[in-house]
Every structure is written in C-alpha cells, then in structure tokens.
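hey
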C-alpha cells in the first residue's frame, strides 16, 4: 500500500513540475552580437546576466587548489565575459542608456595597488588576471615593479634649486638667528672694546716715556756739546804735539793710520759714550730704546 502511495506522489510531483514548465516562457538565449538587441531594457538585462556569470567565476578562481590549467581556463573565460560585457555597455550607450564603463573597477596587484592592464592591441579592456591566477608562474613577475634606478642629477637640476635662501640671505627673516647671535655679538663687542682700551693705554704710556727720554736726551746733548768742544780742543793740541814729536823723531810708520777727521770722529764718539754712561742710567737707556721702537724711530 505504501508503495502505491509513493508512486502516486511521485507522479503527482512530475505532473506539477510539467505544468509549471508549460506556464513558463521558453528560455531565451543571449544574442551572440550586442548589435542585434534593439531594446535598452533587454540590453541592460543581458549585461546583468554577464555580471552574475563573472561574479560566480571570480569566486571560483579564488581557490588555489584547482590547479594551474583550471585556473588559466577560468581566467580566460572571465576575460571573455568582460569583453562581451564591454560590447553590451557600448550598445547601452548607443541606445541612450548610462555609460557603465566610466565607473568600472580597476585592476590591482597582490598588494591591492592599482596597476595598468596590459593591452597591446589598444582595443577593449585588455587581459586581466583574477584571484589565484595572479600567483601563477610567469604572472607574478608581471605585477612586480622594477627597482627604481636613482637618476643622477644634472648640473641644471642642482642649480635650479639654488635661490637666495641657499646663500643665507633670508636667515634673519624669522628672527631666530638674531636671538641666538645677539648675546655672542655683545660679548665680542665688549672684548674688542676692552682690547682697544688696553692697547691705547699702552700707547699713551709709551708716548709719555718717550717725551721724558727726549727731554733727558736734550739736556745730555747740551752737556755733551759743551764738553765735546773742550775734548776736541784738547785732542787737537795732543795731535799737534804728537805730530811735532813725530817730526822730530822722523819715525816712519809702515801701517795705514787714520786721518785727522777719522780720529776726531772716534774721539767724539768715545766721549759721548762716556758721558751717556755717566749721566743716564741703564733703565733709562732701555726705556729710550723701547720708546723708539714703539714710535718707529731709528735715529
């Protein structure tokens, strides 16, 4: 009895499914060419259908365990659907619909950075890689960026960045340099002024000592002049007496003798030295020599 009920239930299910299929419209196939579609709503419907197929295949290609061949086939099918989707999008624009291509998703690398899609032909969206297909041999290298070579700067690149700030003409505009250098400048000015005052004091003392030495020297010269006359006269007398005696003896000298002027000069010089040592002390002579050196007097 149970077997008959099961058979009846099974036949009823098949009958209900058959009636439901009769009520449905015949399944439409997507046109092979987008240009054959004349209705904007239908074109949008076929585009949505392609989008769903792309979504299913993209979800499937994320599985790395499918194998290299299956991943490559899935990636080829997805790219074929994307090309077909672009045809329908252009057809939708021709029929007066929105331009979906403006807001299309960009291709990214393994790190999520947007990369350019390789498209040697220049037509269509280009070939893309999805999911695990990006890690296939020969594909990973396409997403690796070449090492950036540091370009050597030319002389023009160096000089075009040089302005007034490079030479320090704008260092005082912000006021920081003035605040930092202010105390140091005042200290240097004070030291320079103190050094100048010390040098001036030394010069004043040197001039004062030179005047004293000159006054003492003038008095000594007067005394020397008076005694020089006496010495010269005495020397002259001695020379005359000597000449007279030499003539009397008639002695012939075989060595060169100084003349009268040379002898007179030597005598005067010796007397000067004696008088200076007599009236001027050694300290005074040293001060006189230092004063002459400071005043640049060579006489």
């Amino acid at each position: 009895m149970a077997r008959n009920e099961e058979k009846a239930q099974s036949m009823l299910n098949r009958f209900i499914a058959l009636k439901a299929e009769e009520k449905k419209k015949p399944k439409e196939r997507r046109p092979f060419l987008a240009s054959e579609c004349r209705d904007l709503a239908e074109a949008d419907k076929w585009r949505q259908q392609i989008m769903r197929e792309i979504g299913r295949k993209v979800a499937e290609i994320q599985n790395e365990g499918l194998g290299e061949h299956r991943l490559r086939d899935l990636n080829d099918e997805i790219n074929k659907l994307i090309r077909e989707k672009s045809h329908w999008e252009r057809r939708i624009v021709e029929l007066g619909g929105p331009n979906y291509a403006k807001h299309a998703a960009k291709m990214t690398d393994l790190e999520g950075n947007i990369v350019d899609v390789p498209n040697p032909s220049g037509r269509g969206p280009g070939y893309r890689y999805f999911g695990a297909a990006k890690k296939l041999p020969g594909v990973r290298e396409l997403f690796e960026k070449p090492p950036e070579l540091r370009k050597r700067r030319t002389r023009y690149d160096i000089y075009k960045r040089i302005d007034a700030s490079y030479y320090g003409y704008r260092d005082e505009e912000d006021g920081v340099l003035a605040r930092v250098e202010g105390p140091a400048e005042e200290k240097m000015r004070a030291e320079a002024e103190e050094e100048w005052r010390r040098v001036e004091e030394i010069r004043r003392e040197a001039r004062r000592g030179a005047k004293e030495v000159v006054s003492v020297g003038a008095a000594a010269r007067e005394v020397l002049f008076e005694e020089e006359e006496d010495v010269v006269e005495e020397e002259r007398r001695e020379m005359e007496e000597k000449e007279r005696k030499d003539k009397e003896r008639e002695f012939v000298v075989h060595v060169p003798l100084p003349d009268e002027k040379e002898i007179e000069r030597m005598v005067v010089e010796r007397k000067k030295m004696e008088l200076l040592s007599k009236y001027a002390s050694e300290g005074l002579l040293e001060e006189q020599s230092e004063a002459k050196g400071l005043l640049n007097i060579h006489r």
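The first helix runs from residue 2 to 23. The mean pLDDT is 76.
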